[in-house]
Amino acid sequence: MFSLRRLFSNSAQKLTREEVFAIAKEVHATPWDSAKEPGIAVPAYDGMTSELEQYLTPNGPAGYTKPDRRKRPTKIANSALELVGNTPLIRLDRLAKYLGTECEILGKCEYYSAGGSVKDRIGLRMIEEQERAGLLQPGDTLIEPTSGNTGVGLCMAGALHGYNVIITLPQKMSGEKVNMMKSLGALILRTPTEAAWNDTNSHLFLAMRLKAKIPNSHVLDQYLNKGNPLAHYEGTAEEIIEQCDGHVPHMVMTAGTGGTLSGIAAKLKQKCGTTIVGVDPQGSILALPEHLNDEDKFKAYHVEGIGYDFIPTVLQRNYADVWYKSKDPESFAYARALIRHEGLMIGGSCGSAIWGVHKYIKEKGLGKGDRVVCLFADASRNYMSKFLDDDWMTKSGFSLDPLPPTGMNV
Ligand code: PMP
After folding, report:
1. For the chain, where do the domains classified as CATH 3.40.50.1100 start and end?
2. pTM of the predicted model, to two decimals?
3. From the alpha carbon of 257, which atom of ligand 1 is closest?
């Protein structure tokens, strides 16, 4: 047994995982008091900096060396981490036919990654960057504010590399993600969904409080960590270019932190002159021009993992040539259609993305001979008790009708 008083007074000594988690639970259970915990603040995120943007250029800033690209083993893998990324690109002819278009639609299916989402790539990359810099020791604690998928990626890499992981997570995120991260050995601390990003109750603020209290702890911070867009600039985008033999005229992606969009967009624009479409949920403020965000600004929505009430440092909003604002009913209807017609076991934000594809095809009048690539960020696994469940859909006020339910904005 141990006493919390001893733990708090002994900050230099290496604590056990159990002791670290005890401190974290105590901090979470105690309202923040500025007198007792001075100097806590979340970073002043304000969109991409020129310093970070230098990494999204062919040579990177002076002194930067690119790590080797990970290849998917074709024989025996040494660990699950070797199976992060290198995901398949799938032609969606059946869905295209159902939607009545002859445009070729290709889906980059990130749920085939070892942890089931696009964020495995950055969980691993942020840890590897920190290790390369000599800043992590086994037994250290990683604390990350996330909507869940980065958490799964970090928990998986943390479990295999020997770190304690604490995830701060808004209440809205699915129980499936929570159980997955717990099974990977992490401590999950929930925060109110309605807390603004810089509120003292937010998942970002809690992460900073924990970092101040827990010795040998690190917040890798996906909202500003260069490893986030770089994982996509050097990895995801190169895979797409190879899979398409360089022919990527149009690419559609949702945005959360924006690391996926910034990293992929920068590379595709440089190498293929691609037109980029960003999809941001109604309620969020990531889209440009600004007035697109006015309707239902800051209003809650159900789709997980996309949209924010601040502009993360890793997001360069100007990289999207067009932004669309997605709504929950369309997102879930399109996600269910994608599962039903293509057998792709994707998550809710993939519905927002494919809705964006359909809208773009219609607006631009694309057809035979045209190609649109779309990124599918995560897996149905995360939402078995949510949009995969008819009862949840009905109780939450969503239609079970196949596409296109009346009144949908496509
Ligand atoms: N979809 C889902 C389900 C996600 O979890 C995320 C990550 N938050 C995204 C899309 C967007 O990815 P990014 O953070 O790179 O913008």
Report:
1. 14-34+119-219, 80-117+226-395
2. 0.95
3. 14
